[in-house]
Amino acid sequence: MKKLSKLELSEKDLNAIYKLKKKLLDRFPRTRVILYGSKVRGNSEEFSDIDILILLYETSYIFSYL
Q1: DSSP string spanning the chain?
Q2: pLDDT(40) > 80
């Protein structure tokens, strides 16, 4: 698994990812954020998006917001 700091992401992308992760962890402490796709593989293009998988381990949190 690659470290976020080792990926070739723009400062804007990094800031967005860190902001999302902080908000998720504040609300759902047992959360894991996983990046995948072209940005992680290093073959992204100008208009590539950021693929993010969010794992929530606390189901009680999930159902309280539905």
Answers
A1: ---GGGS---HHHHHHHHHHHHHHHHH-SSEEEEEESHHHHT---TT---EEEEEE--HHHHHHT-
A2: yes
